[in-house]
Each structure stands twice: as C-alpha cells, then as structure tokens.
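Justification of computing resources. Each target in the renewal requires a structure prediction run like the one illustrated here; the chain below, 345 residues long, is used simply to show the kind of job we budget for.
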Amino acid sequence: MKTINVKLKNGSYGIYIGTGAYGRLLNDLSIRKGKIFLVVDANAMAYHSHVILDALGTEPAGIFFVDGEKEKNMTTVINILEQAAKSGITRSDCFVSFGGGVCGDITGLCAAVYMRGIDYYQVPTTLLSQVDSSVGGKTGVDLEQGKNLAGAFKQPSGVYIDTGVLRTLPLRELNQGKAEMIKAALIGDSNLFENFEENEIVSEDNITRCVEIKLEFVSGDELDTGKRMMLNFGHTIAHALETKVGYGELPHGEALAIGMAIANKMAEEAGISPKGSTKRIINVLEKNSLPVNTDIRLNELIPIMKNDKKNIDGRLKSIFLTDIGKAGIYSMTVEEFAEMERKPV
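Resulting structure tokens:
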C-alpha cells in the first residue's frame, strides 16, 4: 500500500492507495469512535456492500443512496442533511462517502455545512474519483445554470483508494477516469504522457502519480485562485457541454476528452501549443475509446461559459498547454475564447 501525506493550511490527511487501504480506514474510524453516516453510490453498494460495511467496523447510524449525476443537486444535499439529523449525527461524528465523484462531491458539501462542519472520509470507487475528485477538497453540486456552481472547499480526513473495486466498472466508466489521467499528464508530466502513448494507462503506479500531480497544483493554492486553475484544462468546454446536453447525458470524462482536443487545437492554431501536439493528444484519447469532437459549436456555449467559475470580472481564465506536460493561464473574454475556434477537430 502506498501512502501520500497531504499537508495543507486547511487540513492535513493521508491518501492510501492499494490493497490494505480499507484496512487503514477501519483503523482510522476505530480510533476516532463516534457515529458514522454513510453516503453511497447505488451501483458501488450493489457490488461491494460487504467491503465498505466491514471497513466501517460498526453499523452506520444512517445510509443514503445516491444514483448518478442527475441527483447532484441541492435537493439531494437537503435530504442527506435532514436524514443525518434524524440519525442523531453530531459534530463529533462523521460522514463517509463510498462511490464515484458525484457521491464524493455531495458528501463533502454536506460535511462542510452540517452543523457548520464535521469530518468526512472519501472512499472513491471509480477511476475518475480515485485520480481526481476525491483529492483536493473541492465539493459541490450542479445548478440549472452550470456545473458545480454551488459548493465549498472542505478537505477530507482521509482518502482510501483500493484499485480492486475497479474490476466491476463497465469499460465506458473506466474510460472516464482515463480522460482525467491523460489531463494530469498533459499539464504536469510529459514522461507520463509518453508512457500513455505506448502503454496501458490504468495501473496502481500511474494512479498514484496522477494523485501526486494534482496535489502539486493544490499545494499552496487550496482555494483555486492561482496555479490550481491549470487543473481546469479542457473543463471550460467540458462543463459547458455537460450543461448544454443535460446532466448525466454526456459523461464527464467524454466531455473532458472533447474539451481537451478542441482547446488544444485552438491553442495550437494560435501558436500557444506546439505543432503536432493536438494530433498526439487525439491519438491517445482515441486509443482509449474517448471522443474528440462534437457537433455543438463554441458560440452556442457562450451563455453557459459566462457562468463558469473561472469567469472573473467578465474575463475567463483559460487554460492552454504551452508544451506537453506544461500549461499556462490566459485571461480573455468568453467571446474571445469562442472566436479562437476555427473548425471542428
């Protein structure tokens, strides 16, 4: 089992990766004592209920089931908070999330606001949540106007990643996580991207490296006002596409793959990204069965992008690659961003 010790201004915790991670969760929960309120993904619970219930070490005071992106909203948050209160959860108790990114984001937000903040533990069960959403302390839910527009920063008390649960994921779901791993390599590690060009992406070592890359950007910028914004590469287009198509209709990883391909094509044509980089990116995405284009034009997404969290004082903080493994932040209006598009990838 690999251990990464995270030390941040607003919370320090351990990330445990590999066989034995759930044993560490059992140990950590037994030390803290108190009641546990469990928020679970319905699919993860169907396959692995015995795993998480054994790792809790005690009967949870309450269990709430979350089922997909369409439930990532304030109604679900209120329902969880009310059920936690009925279950007698106090500030000395905790939430545990067992599921993918939707489950983790909702649980984190609930932990941030319940009784003005209680501890919570992340047990991610999808590749996407293992390499991205469970790490860094971002929580949130969707509004009709855009993705993740309601949220808070709340660091978990621990993250427990066992790659064994990935064996029950459908291939399309596994590919969603690969998109985030490709993004991590593109903004933070050219050698890792070269590895992805030649080899299978999913391995315990690669998952660990992607977590490390994310923490490199989070460290010193927990509140997402500087270098952490680079983690948003491809996401401005991706989130707008998800909102336009309808939450849950276009999976996040597929939207991200499209967003990265289009954004880099725009940047390459503008002379920001190196020649030939878009072709390399598209080759890796397509090798992993991820889409690289859409019939929706950027000018159709302008009203949605204006609600993007990176749109500050009318200017969008756009992320483009300056090289494979390196990214930069560019300030422009949403209209200027859309005008960079020439033609479909």
